[in-house]
Design brief:
The protein is of the alpha+beta class. It has two domains: 44 residues, no CATH class; 74 residues, Alpha-Beta Plaits (2-Layer Sandwich). It contains six helices and four strands. Strands 2-3-1-4 form a four-stranded antiparallel β-sheet. Helix 2 packs across helix 3. The longest helix has 15 residues. It is elongated and about 55 Å long.
């Protein structure tokens, strides 16, 4: 995927936070010295090309509810079916295939731990697989950003 100059500038400037205001895309455009339509078109191009997965806030999960990391050991012949089933849950995000006995990893979020526990029971009943429940004990904050910079 080729990233144009506006996309590079937009990613570098806003991947760590959007303006908190009534018109965030207009504020982004002002900061980038372009039009709001340019920003929206750029975001659309990034999304349609697969370069953008989401735009939205990242909440401190312990203040907003509960979450846990879950792993499943899915037989390869069932992988697509189980992944599709897991993806149907609104509470699931970050679903990944991994090279390991526990090969399907995802995050479950919900309003409280009881909700998470009920989801784990439902997932086990639907898949016939026992979820490995790995709740976070301590968060070690990192700056998960990827500077794009100028084109090579």
């Amino acid at each position: 995927m080729q990233i144009d100059t506006l996309s590079r500038r937009l990613i570098d400037r806003f991947q760590h936070g959007m303006p908190l205001c009534a018109e965030p895309y207009r504020a982004m455009a002002d900061a980038l010295e372009c039009s709001e339509d340019d920003v929206l078109a750029c975001l659309e191009r990034l999304e349609s090309s697969g370069g953008l997965s989401r735009i939205g806030p990242v909440f401190e999960h312990s203040r907003a509810g509960a979450s846990t990391l879950v792993a499943l050991a899915v037989p390869e012949v069932q992988l697509e079916r189980v992944a599709e089933l897991i993806n149907c849950y609104a509470e699931v995000n970050h679903n990944y295939l991994r090279e390991h006995h526990y090969n399907l990893w995802f995050v479950l979020t919900g309003p409280d731990r009881a909700h998470i526990d009920a989801l784990l029971v439902a997932i086990e009943a639907q898949t016939g697989l026992i979820p490995l429940d790995l709740p976070m004990q301590t968060a070690y904050r990192i700056d998960l950003g990827f500077p794009i910079g100028e084109a090579p």
